Amino acid sequence: MTRGFLVLSAAGLMAASCCAPEARSEARTVKVAVAASLTEAFTALAKEYETEHPGVRIRPTFAASSALAQQVNDAAPLDVFASADEESMSKVTVAGNALDPKVFARNRLAILVGKGNPKAITSLADLAGPGVVFLLCAPEAPCGRFGAAALEKAKVKARPASLEENVKGVVSKVALGEADAGIVYATDVKAAAGRAEGVDIDIDGDPALTAVYPIALTRQADDVEAASGWVDFVLSERGQQTLSRFGFLPP
Amino acid sequence: MEAEVDVRLGDLHLSVDLRVGNDETVAVLGPNGAGKTTLLRALAGLNPLDRGTVVLDGETLEDTTTGAHVPSERRRIGVVFQDHVLFPHLSVLENVAFGPRCRGARRSVARRQAGAWLERVGLSDRAGARAGELSGGQAQRVALARALACEPRLLLLDEPLAALDATTRPAIRRDLRRRLDAYGGMRVVVTHDPLEAMALADRLLVLEAGRVVQSGTRQELISRPRSPYVADLVGVNLFRGQARQTRVRVEGLDLVVPDAGHGEVLVVVHPRSVALHRSRPDGTPRNVWRGRVEVVDPEGERSRVRVTGPLTVVAEVTAAAVNDLELAPGGPVWVAVKATDVQVYEA
Amino acid sequence: MSRRGAPLAALAFGALGVSFMALPLAGLVWRTPWSAVLDELRDPVVTTALRLSLVCSLGAALVAVMLGVPLAWVLARVDFPGRRLVRAVALVPLVLPPVVGGVALLLAFGRRGLVGQWLDQWLGVRLPYTTPGAILAEAFVAMPFLVITAEAAFRNLDRRYEDAARTLGAGGFTVFRRVTLPLTLPSLVVGAVLAWARALGEFGATITFAGNTPNRTTTIPLEVYLQLEAGRLDGAIVLSLVLLVVSVGVLVGLRDRWLGQQ
What we know:
The complex is a heterotrimer of chains A (251), B (347) and C (262). With 251 residues, chain A is of the alpha/beta class. Chain A has two domains: 28-106 and 212-245, Periplasmic binding protein-like II (D-Maltodextrin-Binding Protein, domain 2, 3-Layer(aba) Sandwich); 108-209, D-Maltodextrin-Binding Protein, domain 2 (3-Layer(aba) Sandwich). Chain A has helices at 2-26, 39-52, 65-73, 86-94, 142-153, 167-176, 186-191, 224-235, 237-245, and strands at residues 28-35, 56-63, 80-82, 98-107, 109-114, 134-137, 162-164, 181-185, 196-200, 211-218. Chain A is elongated and about 55 Å long. The two termini of chain B are 30 Å apart. Chain B has helices spanning 36-44, 92-102, 107-120, 136-148, 169-182, 194-200, 218-223, 228-234, 319-324; strands at residues 2-9, 12-19, 25-29, 51-56, 59-63, 68-69, 77-80, 154-158, 186-191, 203-208, 211-216, 237-250, 253-269, 274-277, 286-299, 302-308, 313-318, 332-338, 342-346. The longest helix of chain B is centred in the first third of the chain and has 14 residues, at 107-120. With 347 residues, chain B is α+β, with helices and mostly antiparallel strands. The mean pLDDT of chain B is 89. Chain C has a domain at 54-215: MetI-like (MetI-like fold), CATH 1.10.3720. Chain C has 262 residues and is mainly alpha-helical. Chain C has helices at residues 2-30, 34-42, 44-77, 83-91, 98-109, 116-123, 131-156, 159-167, 172-200, 204-210, 220-229, 233-257. Chains A and C meet through helix 3 and strand 7 of A and helix 11 of C.
């Protein structure tokens, strides 16, 4: 019984190792770690790229930039890292796990409010109003750091009801009505159209309050050709057009 | 107490009329699964009746025609459960005080009453013990004291001696009989042991498959068993046959009997009246047939010998006779029964 | 061979099982930055999270006992149509991903939820982003552990103890208080401890329903996750170790007193 089991597992291992290269030769796969705020934009980009390059498949993983940086540093099988802040990217580059990051987009902060803006929120100062429940990202996530900085700059003392673990959590809860407002990116407002509304924050132009999105190949990337083809596409005219359609600003 | 109990529970259909007079003990005797415990539980209000009434001292406790139902806790009926079911988390004293407490007595009063009851059953020195630390006989007395501390009008005992080992059982049985007589209320004892039933009760009620097959005094049961189960219980040979004048056709044999009769009859032959011989006995008109020894059960000075043949009977002979006749399983033997030793009564 | 082989095989697989459970813990201890432990423990973020974790898990265990014991009793003792369905519903959190549980709680007890909107309108009670909300989320996930243990305890109890109490004059509640409860107490304590342990480690339902609000809902599991997200591996490990020491300590302590009797 035990021996039979060993033989079986050995056969399984051999089968797995023999067939792996074959599988890759069929379709080249680029595994991309993508910041949560890029979810909709990168899904669209991947589809466009795959239509133009039938031999290549883009496999995105969406999560908070900080979590992804951790995964890349832990040698997860990820070929490209698209971060929502330079800090997460620098954790990876400092550790030598990614090379030559390039900024491909920028993003503004915005206030997301419920449909019809029931609490009549027009500025950051309104978040401190009586009975207003508002959410911020956790300080570990870039949207949390930018949001806190924006509140400080606007001299708003109000405390958020919760520090959500990533920006999409803020969006969901505002859309559900569990919060009156949340500080998110302009792109999230666009993505949530129909479920929630956006209010612009009048701190445009301040580079300290603008999210910067860098992209880079990781050291793990084994099909460098396919991976850099994808990075070049994101930086190209076509890629930029798609990104701006989702509300991103050019680099 | 007068009760008409009709309960369906799984395969069992229990249908029993039961009357118990003041200061009387009735034993309900029957094999496992006959419905004895179900009957007790129905009387105590723990199993609802499908049909029937329970009336105690003129008070209707249950009547399915009117829907009346007094819950167990308000019936003045005490129960001594099989295996005693003492509360393991309470001391002996607290077990006995449980009833008085539930019936509204203050803690100190209840404990004093419980102490008095323990003294009456001779267990004052075990008041602080846990139920698990008692011997079987002690636990039985505590269970009795616990039930009696509520001063019930009717006391129900379910196999009160079953949990005891054989050596202590006779003494405890005598002791229980004394205590039951001292308690003046009505008593119902459920048991599968005929000896226990006859030792404890004035009147017996035999239950088989939910029905009363016979009721009466000890004497009535012994002399005129009405079912093989009862005959087996009292240790006699019982047959059912067709009478024609002074002959009764039983299985493959015509028995000669003392009195003329007709139709379906029950025939009782006491094992002591069955004689065994090595060769065919001669003499007066007798019932004689050839059989084969099936089993020999020594019981003290005497042995019970089961003989198969046209009619299977049990004979009771002395140990000496077993030797003289060289009785051994499988051996041939002649069976003889005097006509005057055959009792016949209507079925 | 087979006679002596069976216990040996059992021992071998048992050892394998223990290693499987113990090795990850050993990994945690191995990577612990011992020199930094004291500093981390003095960090108010850590002490607050620890205090919140204890408050919320004990509160959740209490809620589970108050609601779960009567429910378990009904499931064990009352024969009603749909009992199997009710039992299945009560045990659903065992298989439901906790995050889904959190979303479901939002839809029921959130500000716009099925019940939550009335709580908000009539009583001014809002559960999300509050400590009671965190307790509720943890209780939701932990209660099945109590219900399953308590129901088995009630079922296994010889009903004749309760019958005996009734014939001695005890009404329904007295029977429960003086007989059923004391006789099933060891199992109920085990169930409560299991529920407490589950609540202590609860993450998904809590962060989804109660959010991540420092001082109010940021329990240790949330803090561990956030520290990992931020790349502060040392902090996360020390926090995990604190949780591990507290829970193993309680489980070992209780085992001798309660589980050991089983």
